[in-house]
Design goal:
The protein is mainly alpha-helical. It folds into 2 domains: 206 residues, Rossmann fold, CATH 3.40.50.620; 95 residues, Tyrosyl-Transfer RNA Synthetase, CATH 1.10.240.10. Helix content is 54%, strand content 7%. The protein is built from 13 helices and 5 strands. It starts with a strand and ends in a 5-residue tail after the last helix. The structure holds tryptophanyl-5'AMP. Tryptophanyl-5'AMP binds next to strand 1, helix 1 and helix 7. The site of tryptophanyl-5'AMP (TYM) has 25 residues, from strand 1, helix 1 and helix 7. Its main location: cytoplasm.
Length: 331
């Protein structure tokens, strides 16, 4: 049985990108693998949340994990900061992560560009903490969206470097995983780039959005004046709507609108209406469960408490091994 690790930062409500890039795969994988799904609250500290916001956001991710169908009796759901061993492993891994490679990481460069006044060391070493998360439980499969591919590559680099440095084969190489042929990238509604929490409220459709909100957001999505000749290549904003449709609608529906586009007969209003209804239908069960679970504090805390315990057990074992390998010996 392979081990699976993945996490989501506690930065607010989860959107369709988180769902199709990560959680949907978590739910499918839990039956076949030893799974650890955590809430990355340490990673979310890079943006300095208030204690109240941090707590509310951790709770929100826990609710949405459970609502999406992660079964705490099968998979281990835990909070990253409840397993302090991860911070210790992060410290050790930092010793063989080099400044140049950390500065070259695409996510770091993007963060610096977006917020040049908050370039803290936590942002720089974000991929090292992520490697520690993954290696802590010896995961080989890591279900993530396309934007995390480079971080998985860095995790392999750090794991191999550790192995070489201590002449061991202790850490295995983990790989990004998706059930689809390629890692998923769900686009946003603003016509450019991916769906994300930091790209603006209107750009993302959240799992907890009401049907009315979903309709409003989708109807406002960026389009253009339509194709001018048959079989024209789709501009980014239009392609994005088709990519979203491919995630939530039936292949026949996508084909139908694709044919209309290629014949220059498409009406974007119709496409958006269909897209909104299909998003509403695809997210309905999760939305309903979010409402139910939000008020069930006993269920939430039981799931987290038992997950934390299982995660710590695995983490303690790894850290005992790692200390031994590094050469910390008892006197
Ligand atoms: P976060 O919170 O940014 O994203 C959580 C997961 O959602 C995926 N995702 C997307 N997938 C497809 N299309 C999108 N538009 C989209 N937006 C987000 C991300 O790829 C991710 O899988 N660094 C991680 C959190 C983390 C982690 C780990 C993951 C910390 N340690 C160890 C795996 C293993 C992150 O991106 O969180």
């Amino acid at each position: 049985m392979e081990t699976v690790v993945s996490g989501i930062r506690s930065t607010g409500k989860l959107h369709l990108g988180n769902y199709y890039g990560a959680i949907k795969n978590f739910v499918k994988m839990q039956h076949e693998h030893r799974c650890y799904f955590f809430i990355a609250d340490l990673h979310s500290l890079t943006t300095h949340p208030t204690p109240q916001d941090l707590h509310a956001n951790v709770r929100q991710v826990a609710i949405e994990y459970l609502a999406a169908g992660i079964d705490p009796e099968i998979a281990t759901i835990y909070i990253q900061s409840d397993v302090p061993e991860v911070a210790e492993l992060y410290l050790y891994m930092n010793m063989n992560a080099y400044l140049g490679e950390l500065e070259r990481a695409t996510s770091f460069k993007d963060k610096v560009r977006a917020n040049p006044n908050n370039v803290n060391a936590g942002l720089l070493t974000y991929p090292v903490l992520m490697a520690a998360d993954i290696l802590l439980h010896h995961a080989t499969k890591v279900p993530v969206g396309k934007d995390q591919e480079q971080h998985l590559e860095m995790t392999r680099t750090f794991a191999n470097r550790f192995n070489r440095m201590y002449n061991t084969d202790y850490f295995q190489e983990p790989h990004a995983f998706s059930f689809s042929k390629q890692l998923v990238k769900i686009p946003g509604l603003d016509g450019k780039g991916k769906m994300g929490k930091s790209e603006g409220e209107a750009n993302a459709v959240y799992l907890s959005d009401s049907p009315e909100t979903i309709r409003k957001k989708v109807m406002r999505a960026v389009t253009d004046s339509g194709p001018t000749e048959p079989n024209q290549q789709k501009p980014e904003a239009i392609q994005n709507l088709f990519t979203l449709m491919a995630a939530v609608s039936s292949p026949d529906t996508v084909q139908h609108f694709d044919d209309l586009y290629n014949r220059c007969e498409i009406r974007y209003g119709d496409l958006k209406k269909q897209l909104a209804e299909d998003i509403i239908a695809a997210t309905a069960p999760v939305r309903q469960r979010i409402h139910e679970i939000s008020t069930d504090n006993t269920y939430i805390s039981k799931a987290i408490r038992q997950g934390n315990e299982k995660a710590r057990e695995s983490a303690r074992k790894t850290l005992a091994d790692v200390r031994e390998i590094i050469g910390f010996r008892k006197f």
